[in-house]
Amino acid sequence: MEKRSREQSGQLSRRKFLGASAASALAVIPSKALRAGALAMQDNPGGTDALHSQPSTVTVDIAPSHLANTFSPHRALGTSIDILPYGSVDKLYVEPTIKECLSAGWGPMTYRQNTELQIAAWHWNDRGTWSDPANRSGYFTGSAEPAETLRHSYAYPLPHRGTTRNGGSTHGYSRLTDGNPQTYWKSNPYLTSRFTGEEDSLHPQWVVIDLGTAQGVNAVRIDWGNPYARNYEVQYWTGEDAMDQPVSGAWNTFPGGIVTGGSGGSAMLTLSREPIEARFLRILMTESSNTCSTHGAGDPRNCVGYAIHEVFVGTFDSSVGFVDLVQHSPDQNQTPTYCSSIDPWHSASDLDVHAGDQTGFDLFFTSGVTNQLPAIIPIAMLYGTPEDAAAEIAYLKKRGYPVAYVEMGEEPDGQYAMPEDYGALYLQFAEAIHRLTPEARLGGPIFEGVNEDIKVWPDAAGRTSWLGRFLNYLKSHGRLSDLAFMSFEHYPFGPCEVTWSDLYREPELVSHILDVWREDGLPENVPMLITESNLSWGTDQSFVDMFGALWLADYAGAFLTAGGSGLYYFQFFPEHLSHGCNGEGIFGMSTATADYQVRQHTSQYFAAQLINLEWVKPGGEDHHLYRASCDITDAAGHRLVTVYAVERPDGQWSLLLVNRDQDNAHAVRVIFQDEQAGRNASFSGPVTMVTFGAEQYQWHEDGRNGHADPDGPPLTRTLAGGRESVFGLPKASLTVLRGKVQI
Predict the structure, then answer these.
(1) How does pLDDT run across 539-563, given as a tens digit for each residue?
(2) 197: phi > 0 → left, psi -120 to 50 → alpha, else beta; which?
(3) pLDDT range class, residue 25, cuts 50, 70, 90
(4) 241: region left, alpha or beta (phi > 0 left; psi from -120 to 50 alpha)
(5) Whose CB has fewer CB within 10 Å in the chain, the N or C terminal residue?
(6) CA-to-CA distance for 392 and 367, rounded, in angstroms?
(7) DSSP annotation of 52
(8) What's residue 168's pLDDT?
């Protein structure tokens, strides 16, 4: 899994980030009234850091009209599995490992679809039919009929690929600049009028060539395949990065770049009299010849769209001839190209088991990892077919497996798919799925982890919002009801850029992006789900330090407070430590032994336990979440303590407190305030206090042998409540306070 960085942040010294010393576990700190005997000091109250100032106040706004959210843990707090290393599935799916991972308390599961990031077709069932059975090639449809148990599934890299690299794949290569005259890129046939019912000009297809630096260009040679473009334009980009900063410039058509009535073959175009400086060039295609590809006329999908064997870009003059600036190579050293879509045609020989194992659905649903709860299941859409997707969901229904939602595709923004193209595929796939499984609830688009609105090249009306245009496409076709949920990923911080101060930003980042999607036009009744998340898309030691635990708690609390419907932590299974810019880390809660068994838990495992087993009441009952605040700030105005308060179905109030102060413990009183009724309340009777800080966990860097010592568990105590009770929060720690409240 790879993500593209979309923001920059300042650096903090590594010593400061990694070198927080152990903080003493504090219990209740008695005030003068408490010293009179109202509350005794608990065992091991620890140091006196929290006594350096007067106790601060945590205020919980419990006015009924100020309810922030209602959620069920068994719908809102989940985890995920992704593609696994080849040969690891049978080692990971064993009862002791699954039981240990389930002990973190996460509820539902989402199944991540990784083969689309590899630009590959996915055979979720290796039993099925080929459109060209004699050659075991074409378009594959998995069998919807249950037979033998599905334990494994694999990727088939697409042979007509036109993208060198995207938001998920740095493997493989584009056929547009691979130097082989026999290979070719071909666009997705499902984006043509035969399947969309719309003019092809409404779904123009394109390829972009990235020369790396601005260079003088006045000529191109396009070696067309079949079908070829009859009408097309060759354009150059003025501005910043055309692919990752699409609103920072504009496409301009070369003076000689307009072609009508093209006849295919090898087309040599003189684009301008003098070379024009450009880094990015685009071939924009609007009318196809509808002639059949090398795969023949037996399947109409072979005869629609566009195909190009090779692209050459450079300069031409009569004395020197054509000078090609493109590096032609069948690997990542080629001149990079990008494309609007790719034909999912492939053959049995394209199988690549070593690219990873997408767990077979039968193993997934029967192994226990789903907690016997409805799961979120993906279908391959960008590089799949409607028939195959429909068969997949029908198979799950016939097996009787509980499916909560179906995610349509994977990260179309990282694949550079245009919103109207994604919308056209979405409607075709939705129709096919609902034909066999009418009750299936579908959604997406499953964006990469972004913090701001996703922008694309402007359309004819100047609109640049990806989600806004996708929603408009559904609305214009009267199909907005086919969007049962909106999903996206959350990886807020760039790799190698994580600093301690990023903790202060997380609540605003995750709440802001929810506002962005609503502003783009997402209806209020469409729930928002974060179906994959961790603090960055590249691991380092921050994942396994206390930082990772604090971030996870703040993220979960802030997301639910902002109205989010469900979040899914990435990921469920143990992993081997992997090298990052600042030490080793993992996506997950546990490090793995050589044979993929749980070796040791990390800070995020214990944070998950505090969230899932202490803060909320495990199960499917509703919890009511209210806004809470603490008046502790630093000199820059950052809130050092964040608070998330729920009224649990068992009648207890539960507070999740995150002390983000790296250097100081703090003492707090808790007030439950109902301004509308003009009354305050406090914990009464016994209060359960669960603390997780440096006395319970410290990570020790040692390369791939990094480890935690101590390694939990959190400290749990029962304290006395009361109006004057003061609770101590160790520095850089998580705390849950739970008890009855006298209203």
Answers:
(1) 999 999 999 999 999 999 999 999 9
(2) left
(3) very low
(4) beta
(5) C
(6) 19
(7) G
(8) 65
Q: Letter for the amino acid at 742? A: Q
- Cα–Cα distance, 408 to 429 (Å, whole number): 8
Give residue 418's identity as a one-letter amino acid code. Answer: M
How far is the C-alpha of 729 from the C-alpha of 553, rounded, in Å?
A: 15
What b/e sequence results for 105-131 when a residue is b if at least 16 CB atoms lie within 10 Å of its CB, and e otherwise? bbbbbbbbbbbbbbbbbbbbbbebebb
- Compute the CA torsion angle 512, 517, 521, 526 (nearest 10 deg): -110
Full DSSP string of 529-576: EEEEE-SBSS--GGGTSHHHHHHHHHHHHHHHHTT--EEEES-SS-B-
In whole angstroms, give the CA distance from residue 129 to residue 351: 15
Mean pLDDT of the chain: 92
Selected from 3.30.360.10, 2.60.40.420, 3.20.20.300, 2.60.120.260, the CATH number assigned to the domain covering 185-343 reads 2.60.120.260
Residues 6+ apart with CB under 8 A from 196: 190, 202, 203, 424, 428
Q: Tokens representing 541?
A: 């030691």
DSSP bridge pairs for 207:
283, 339
If you search the block for the tokens 């930082």, which residue do you land on? 547
List strand residue ranges (DSSP E) for 410-527, in order: 442-447, 485-490
- Do the domains spanning 24-70+624-742 and 185-343 agree at the CATH topology level? no
Strand partners for 647:
624, 653
Domain residue ranges in the chain: 24-70+624-742, 72-144+356-615, 185-343
Instruction: Give the β-pairing of 403-408 and 442-447.
Output: parallel
User: In whole angstroms, what is the distance from residue 162 CA to residue 205 CA?
Assistant: 12
Q: Residue 417 has which token pair?
A: 């798919």
Query: What CATH superfamily classification does 24-70+624-742 receive?
Result: Golgi alpha-mannosidase II (2.60.40.1180)
pLDDT > 70? residue 384: yes
Q: In the predicted model, what is the mean pLDDT of residues 131-148?
A: 98
Token code pair at residue 616: 């909320």
Element (H, E) at 396: helix 386-399
Beta strands 566-569 and 77-81 are parallel
Cα 387 from Cα 163, distance rounded (Å): 25
CATH superfamily of 72-144+356-615: Glycosidases (3.20.20.80)
Residue 57, judged by CB atoms within 10 A of its CB (0-12, 13-18, 19+), counts as middle
Do the beta carbons of residue 567 and residue 561 sit within 8 Å? no
Q: Which amino acid is at 740?
A: K
713 upstream amide cis, omega within 30 of 0: yes
**Strand-pair partners of 252:** 236
- Which residues face 138 on adjacent strands? 346
CA distances (Å), origin 582, targets 501, 544, 551, 698, 709: 16, 11, 17, 16, 19
First to last CA, the chain: 49
